[in-house]
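Obj: model holo form, ligand = N-acetyl-L-glutamyl 5-phosphate.
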Amino acid sequence: MQYVVIKCGGSIVDELPDSFFEDLATLANREDVAPIIVHGGGPMISSQLKQLNVTTTFEKGLRVTTEEVLDVVEMVLSGAVNKQIVRKLSANGAKAIGLSGIDGGLIEAEAVDEAKQIGFVGQVTAVNIDVIQSLTNMQHIPVISPIGMGKDQQRYNINADTAAGAIAEYLGASLLYISDIPGVLKNDQLLHQLSKAEVEQLIEEAVIYGGMIPKVTAALAALEKGVPEVAIVSGLEKGALIDFVDKKPVGTNFSLSEVSYV
Ligand SMILES: Nc1ncnc2c1ncn2[C@@H]1O[C@H](COP(=O)(O)OP(=O)(O)O)[C@@H](O)[C@H]1O
Ligand SMILES: CC(=O)N[C@@H](CCC(=O)OP(=O)(O)O)C(=O)O
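Output (holo structure tokens):
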């Protein structure tokens, strides 16, 4: 079985066309492929926090998460965004089940920073893949929000790019990041292939910045942990999902090789 973890960024969730969900339904019906969605919702969390007059700040692309912020993060991610994706999948012929990383003990997490300077931001310590496999065995698409729980029963807010990378690692799945850009860009040109050294250089030159930093970092970490393929692609590119599964080039692909592509 080829597992494919598809991470949908909050930047694109509202814009995803029906064809995207139809492609997912097609993939879920194939005997050889099992798609799994992990989603973000950063812009929706920020707008809800604004409405509630709660200020929010980021450190290196991660949201500083107090207990008050965490309540809103969980409500938006595991509520509104998760159910929106499940509804769209159902409307386009797919069977989908929404769950958070807390359901079924799916994502175990611990604080990224023990001193909790950035609050309850988590990193994944284990993934219970039995929960995912029991759903994919029934041709259902798991739709997962990136909230995890610690051994101490504490909830954690996990960056969705990181959560998707960890889930792909535990499943041995390939990993596709769906965002609002066609891939990593430099001077408005799409970079089709990037090595680890090139990514590091592009971050240093600030060509890669903001939310793209956790994405490329998670992409490389996933490759290092044995994930076979990682790419970033626009959610608006028709057929990109199926092309990725069929190993055709899409968006930006990452490799650990020393070869220079740029
Ligand atoms: N070199 C780059 N190429 C493309 N996008 C970049 C780059 N560096 C930073 N970005 C920013 O990263 C954003 C995607 O990251 P993010 O907003 O976190 O998306 P998502 O919600 O899909 O995870 C792009 O919209 C763009 O503003
Ligand atoms: C710790 C941390 O930063 N968590 C993210 C979780 C959502 C997310 O990652 O959403 P995108 O994929 O849309 O960016 C946040 O609070 O915004």
